[in-house]
Every structure is written in C-alpha cells, then in structure tokens.
What we know:
This protein is an alpha/beta fold. It is built from eleven helices and seven strands. It has two domains: about 1-95 and about 165-270, TIM Barrel, CATH 3.20.20; about 100-155, Orthogonal Bundle (DNA polymerase, domain 1), CATH 1.10.150.650. The protein is about 40% helix and about 15% strand. The protein is globular, with a radius of gyration of 18 Å. The protein starts with a strand and ends in a 10-residue tail after the last helix. The mean pLDDT is about 95.
Amino acid sequence: MIDLHTHTNNSDGTDSPHALVNKALSSGITVLGVTDHDTTSGWVDAIQALRPGLSLVLGAEISCLTEDDVAVHMLGLLFDGSNEKMQVMLEESRDSRLPRMRKMTELLTADGIDISLEEVFAAMPEGATLGRPHLADALVAKGHVKSRDEAFADLLNNSSKYYVTHIAPTPEDAIRVIRQAGGVAVIAHPFATRRGQTLSAMSFPSLIAAGLNGVEVDHRDHSQSERDQLRGIAGDLGLVVTGASDYHGTGKLNAMGENLTDPAQWEILESMADARRVITL
Length: 281
C-alpha cells in the first residue's frame, strides 16, 4: 500500500513524524510519503522512527501561485534535501507566510470575527510551518467555528474574501527546482473545486514543458468526474498517476491510506529521480 502525501506537525498535521510512521505501519502502508508544507524539517525524525516493513519517500508540498493568482500545490518527492536552491525556495515560501497571516487576521477582525496573530501562534505546534489550518484551529478555540472543516468552508477557502495569497514560486518554477534537485514533481489535487479556483486542462502543457512527472488523481477532494478527466489528461500527456490520503492527523477527515498509488505507477515515478532515495531498513 503506497500513500505518497501526508503531513506531520512540522507543518499543519497533528501527528509527530514518529507518530505518523507508527500510524502508517498500523494501517498497512508499505511506502509512505512525508510531504510537509514548504519544509523538510520532519525528515530526520521520520527516518529515526522507521521500522522494518515500511519505506519512506521524503519530500515536501510546495505552495505555488500561477501567473493569474491560482493557488497550486506541487509535491516534490525524492529530491536531494541538501540542494541549496531547493532549500532557498522552501525558506522564502515559509518567510512569506507571516505577513499573509497577519493580513488575514486583520480582515477577519475588521468584520467582527475577533482573532489575533498571537492566538494563531498559540494554536501552532512548536516548529511548525505557519498556515491556514492553524488559523482555523485558533478560530475553533475562540468559538467562532466548530471545526477546521467549517472554518475552511465558511471563512478560509481560496474564494473567501478573507483569503490572502503569499509570495510563492510559479508551479513551473517549483517543478524546475525540484527536478534540478534530482527529484520528481507531482501536482497535488489540481482539480479540487471545493478548495476554490483550480487549474484547467490548458495549464498542463506548460507544466509538462517545465518537467512535471505526475498528477495526483485519487484524492478526497476530487469528484469521480474530476478523477476521470485527470486520468484522461495523464494518459494523453504521459504523466504518472498517483493517489494519496493527504493525511493530516486529527486536523482533517482524511484517513491514512484512503487513496493509494498503484505499485506499477510508483515504480515508474521512482525511476524518474536522478538517484534512489527511498529510505528503507
């Protein structure tokens, strides 16, 4: 069982890397992708927690923004974590999250939804990458909403008047950096309409030209028709098809292993990296 997209409390998940590895083992996962938002800080702890029967695919989910301001997430897998350009890109994305969060709290408060930046920090685990889920948790703690899901549905989705973009690479730039660092690039949940604006099929040629390797098709936020359309695009363009849980612990409903990647597709994807970087015991 191959789940290539999960998060720890080093970004916006609720499980430590050690707990994530244990959860994967107990769930029957054999290949686990650790893909925190804009950081590789959980890699060492995940490796230290590794046990026989599980292989780790280390990576990151990179926050991107298209030229027409559509938010896109790009999974970088199997890249060299010491690559300087890669780490600079991740650091710059993390640094832009603070002014973005400050603006979002200001917009909410101006509309009578009182929330402070300090309360968001209080809801964020130490060392985590600041993100909207932590704002959602702060809103829950203040009693403005009942859950993270409600916060995103009503206040924090990409189409909300409270949503603020942040400085981010274009998807094409992110792909190029991932590939230069020896990794593979998979676009995450590209047709998830419930999240707000999405890419169109016309976006894929430029992504292919930049070096895109695969597309995450089987994801909780894709309807069956969206999955079917993406499978057709992947087939036409020669992209690897992946599936994943996008597991966040108790922060989201997503269950470990609820969507999986076919082993044959994973074999193709792994072969596209410039070195074998899967971690096993």
